[in-house]
Specification:
One of its GO terms (molecular function) is alpha-amylase activity. It is built from 16 helices and 20 strands. It has helices at 31-36, 38-44, 79-91, 110-115, 177-192, 226-230, 236-248, 267-270, 304-317, 336-340, 347-360, 389-400, 405-415, 452-456, 462-475, 477-481, and strands at residues 11-15, 46-51, 95-100, 129-130, 142-143, 151-154, 159-162, 197-200, 224-225, 254-258, 279-281, 325-326, 364-368, 483-487, 494-501, 504-511, 517-518, 527-531, 540-541, 546-550. The strands form five sheets. The protein has an eight-stranded parallel sheet with strand order 11-10-8-3-2-1-13-12. A five-stranded antiparallel sheet has the order 14-15-16-20-18. It has a three-stranded antiparallel sheet with strand order 4-7-6, with no helix packed on it. Strand 14 (483-487) and strand 15 (494-501) form a beta hairpin. Bound molecules: alpha-D-glucopyranose. Alpha-D-glucopyranose binds at residues 61, 64, 101, 165, 201-202, 258, 331-332.
Length: 552
């Protein structure tokens, strides 16, 4: 067996710096706020901290619109604060992982400002410029991922530029070698500062098709998602192998690509010895509420077997070669207890159920801030209360599809990315202890009961369950290497699987339903390593019960 890499046997904790911990009273979190909480994160068991973008940015998409790839947004602090964070983390044997947003920059980046100024400036070819269709309309009928056309007209050039996401996020032209060199240099700048890895944003969109054509409309607006037309275009791996050679090779870091559009069958080209990244975020299991794509107004009822099938397929995809990040939450998703348990039920048990799966599947677990507390969704009364740019785009699209404002708002309640972006709930003082000022997004009102301080003191809390199960995950070699096998595959209440290595076998069983779920006789044998109820189950799993057994 190949030697284990440090990032395979750790837990990664994702921080949304804007919402994590504010030390200045500004209402937004900052880097010093993260440094202040390193002991909390160490105690939890995190070995790497992925920060969503902290670079200078107009913050149209909360930092995913970067205007300087080698600086720090003054809102978050200074480069010296970042150096201090990296050093303090290192002292505790934790690494800092940065987010590289290389499909697009901000429209306020000096590169774009120059590029749009004329058709013949030095950066003229750094973005994706096209002439209008005859008659002056956009070059194609592609819809950006946040809604509206993926093209914006620029009078200075009398041309349109492509933006896979918001208008303020023009796509960079990776075909241009100068662009690639500039991006690679910026990543190397951070490696020199000692970062432990990178999460690479929206990477499946960097290669565009050779010919830009209209697609068959997929919604009432007459447009087709840019995702359908450009994700994972052949040739993309050439760019990525160059990226690997120029930046990642030779460093003891990990890389995790955000790869919406890469199927399980393609994983070996992307991860592993001959791939380009250490790991890849796959989307199938978080897209179970949708038939196709992720249009919030087009959700479908789903059964547990769909979720189980998606997780098993990705486990199989990297069974021989490659490695997989396990996640249920991030800054783009609603809170997992609401998302995967839409019928409600005991939220604590639901959070522990997901934690149990997260920590016992094969792969590196990624925990999103507040997930370890069992934080939940918010439900605001008007669309104007939402900050998230995609919530507004999806709301408009739902209205166009003929839904009422109330229905459109219900899609936002269920899906909005703001659900995950409310302030981290530290304690039950004002604003959940996140800020002494006015928070940029209001804290979820349930912070009086769901918060880190209260959960530290409560042996039965979600937080203490996380601490225990992370320890179990990190100290049990079967959970690291053991072969995955799904059990009870047809069962619509229980997700169960085994992990086997040599003569050791560990079984996880989780009841997703709010009713008792019968187990086959003798299904759970041996020692209960952990469970979400105080005592062991008998013939059935109790509502939302999760258990892990090791056979003897
Ligand atoms: C990724 C990020 C998301 C961002 C988008 C555009 O999907 O995770 O937050 O809005 O890319 O950069």
């Amino acid at each position: 067996m190949k030697a284990t890499k440090w990032w395979q046997n750790t837990a990664v904790y994702q921080i949304y710096p804007k919402s994590f911990n504010d030390t200045t009273g500004s209402g937004t979190g900052d880097l010093r706020g993260i440094t202040e909480k390193l002991d909390y994160l160490k105690d939890l068991g995190a070995g790497a901290l992925w920060l969503t973008p902290v670079y200078p940015s107009p913050m149209v998409d909360n930092g995913y619109d970067i205007s300087d790839y080698t600086g720090i947004n003054p809102q978050f602090g200074t480069l010296a604060d970042m150096e201090e964070l990296i050093a303090e983390a290192k002292k505790r044997d934790m690494r800092i992982v940065m987010d590289l947003v290389y499909n697009h920059s901000s429209d306020q980046h000096p590169w774009f400002i120059e590029s749009k100024s004329s058709r013949n400036n030095a950066k003229s070819g750094w973005y994706i410029w096209r002439d209008a269709k005859e008659g002056g309309s956009a070059p194609t009928n592609w819809r950006g991922i946040f809604g509206g056309s993926a093209w914006t007209y620029c009078a200075e050039r009398d041309q349109y530029y492509l933006h896979t996401f918001a208008e303020a996020q023009p796509d960079l032209n990776w075909e241009n070698p100068e662009v690639r060199a500039a991006l690679f240099a910026a990543a190397n700048f951070w490696l020199d500062k000692g970062v432990g890895g990178f999460r690479i944003d929206a990477i499946t969109y960097i290669k565009k098709p050779a010919v830009f054509e209209d697609g068959t409309p997929d919604a009432a607006d007459g447009m087709v998602s840019v995702h359908t037309m450009t994700a994972n275009t052949p040739g993309i791996l050439d760019f990525l192998h160059e990226f690997r050679r120029e930046v990642f090779d030779g460093h003891d870091i990990f890389t995790v690509g955000e790869a919406n559009g890469v199927s399980v069958a393609e994983l070996p080209d992307w991860v592993g010895e001959n791939g380009v990244f250490s790991m890849l975020f796959e989307f199938a299991h978080v897209l179970v509420p949708y038939e196709d794509g992720e249009c919030w107004s087009k959700m479908v009822p789903w059964k547990l077997t769909k979720l189980k099938g998606a997780l098993s397929a990705s486990q199989a995809g990297v069974a021989k070669e490659g490695w997989y990040p396990i996640y249920f939450e991030n800054h783009d998703r609603a809170r997992s207890v609401n998302y995967f348990f839409p019928k409600g039920g005991d939220a604590r048990l639901a959070a522990k159920a997901l934690a149990t799966i997260l920590m016992t599947l094969r792969g590196t677990p990624f925990i999103y801030e507040g997930e370890e507390l069992g934080m939940t969704n918010v439900k605001w009364d008007t669309i104007d209360a939402y900050d998230d740019i995609s919530s507004h785009g999806q709301y408009e699209l739902a209205l166009k599809e003929g839904f009422s404002p109330a229905e459109a708002l219900s899609f936002v309640h269920f899906n909005s990315r703001d659900n995950a972006r409310t302030p981290m709930q530290w304690n039950d003082t004002a604003n959940a202890g996140f800020t002494t000022g006015t928070p940029w997004l209001p804290a979820n009102e349930n912070y009086h009961t769901i918060n880190a301080a209260a959960e530290e003191a409560d042996a039965d809390s979600v937080l203490n369950y996380y601490k225990q199960i992370i320890r179990l995950r990190k100290t049990n070699p079967v959970l690291l290497n053991g072969v995955y096998e799904e059990l009870l595959a047809e069962n619509e209440q229980i997700y169960a699987f085994s992990r086997t290595e040599g003569n050791r076998r560990i079984v996880t069983a989780v009841n997703f339903s709010a009713e008792e779920a019968q187990l086959p006789a003798g299904f759970l044998r041996g020692v209960r390593l952990i469970g979400s109820y105080a005592d062991a189950p008998k013939a059935a799993l109790r509502p939302l019960e999760a258990v892990v057994y090791e056979e003897e």
